Amino acid sequence: MYAEFNNVSSVEKLIDDKTAAVLVEPIQAEGGVLLPDKNYFKELKALCEKNNVLLIADEVQTGLGRTGKLFAYQNFGIKPDMMTLGKGLGGGLPLSAVVISKELEGVYTVGDHGTTMGGNPVACAAGYAALARINKKPVLKQVVEKGAFMVKALKALNNPAIKDVRGMGLIIGVELKSDTASYAAAKALKNGVIINACKPNVLRLVPSLIISKKQMEQAVKAIDKSLY
Q1: For the chain, which domains are there?
Q2: How far apart are CA 72 and CA 83, in angstroms?
Q3: Contact by Cβ (8 Å): 80, 73
Q4: DSSP assignments along 46-58, one per residue
Q5: Comparing 44-58, 104-118, 213-227, which segment has the lowest mean pLDDT?
Q6: What sign does the CA torsion over 167, 57, 142, 212 have?
Q7: What is the pairing mode between strands 82-85 and 54-58?
Q8: What span, in angstroms and rounded, lies between the C-alpha atoms of 166 and 218?
Q9: How far apart are the C-alpha atoms of 207 and 223, rounded to whole Å?
Q10: What pTM was estimated for this model as a whole?
Q11: Taking the CA atoms of the chain, what radius of gyration do you get in angstroms?
Q12: Quick one: CA dihedral 94, 196, 141, 5, positive or negative?
């Protein structure tokens, strides 16, 4: 069952005595880079606790420093009961993880959550290295700074095709005034920038966390050129 993002009441209407968990992305990445309202997650967490329901954060896209915090939920003053990780965790290698709170550690025993090909030593080594590197203040601080720079630069274009620019850290959405995102993404590729049309009218930018200022400036110019 699906509830409306940023609408705790719509979640509450779906919860009954058979509900085990509420699964939510801290930022709706595929949904158009939608940011939560200020108190959304605190209210959602309170609702889950009231009904003895687990809150699961899908951090596959937003985790591992993407928002300027190691995990995106840390931006919103709550702690989920479970969390899913992937993408940045393996740095391109096949690696994902399910993280559970201390309170749930007795639920799993050895073999309960296994995979045929899981636990590859090379992929796990990459994950360990990624965590060690990303979970440092200088790295996370520069993600915030770079994200702010890109958002400001994109807004400063005053491109007539752009309706809104929003984001957190280095996950950024450029909302267009028309459903031309796929066309713009294809044009941007020809101009040397890979971006994604996550909605008919929204472009999603998720650059490398170590992107340089020069690369950001080049990307902004290419995007501007791709919107005409």
Answers
A1: 8-134 (3.40.640.10), 137-226 (3.90.1150.10)
A2: 11
A3: yes
A4: HHHHHTT-EEEEE
A5: 104-118
A6: negative
A7: parallel
A8: 19
A9: 13
A10: 0.92
A11: 19
A12: negative
